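Here is a complete protein record:
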Amino acid sequence: MRILSTDRLILRTMQLEDAAFYLALINAPSWIKHIGDKGIRTIDAAQQAIMTGSIAVQENKGFSLYLIERKTDAAPIGLCGLIKRDELDDIDIGYAVLPDYWGQGYAHEAATGVIRYAKSILGLSRLAAITSPDNLPSSGLLEKLGFTLDSIMPWTDGKEVKFYQRNL
């Protein structure tokens, strides 16, 4: 299901057919370093994660992490969307783009669209975001998107995360 579009991108709900892309993204070294190892190594496991993750969350909460596709060729290039974590009071924005597509403004464009969607469609008044302290490109993107660093806090894996907030 298409959720939103921007000048160059379509953001849509993930489908089981996206499992190969999802598997490649979550096993990219940058994902494992900054987000963590999900332990998903097969197409079947990726399909199960999509079904119990993105698809189920979209049905239950009305938002999810969305697949980012380029309009020009329908290439899946990343994920961007909203997450409700038990550890945070507010819904947070998350994003990840395959390294081949870094530096082209795709994460900024997708996140800007998701922020608009959160405000105008979902009626949210505030968003949070977290990133690992050493992920400077992500911190820079959050600041460019208008998020303010609130604190550095311990996370569930025992490491620290930078915690950002933004009023919508």
Notes: The chain has a mean pLDDT of 95. Strands lie at 2-5, 9-13, 65-70, 76-83, 92-97, 126-131, 148-154, 160-167.
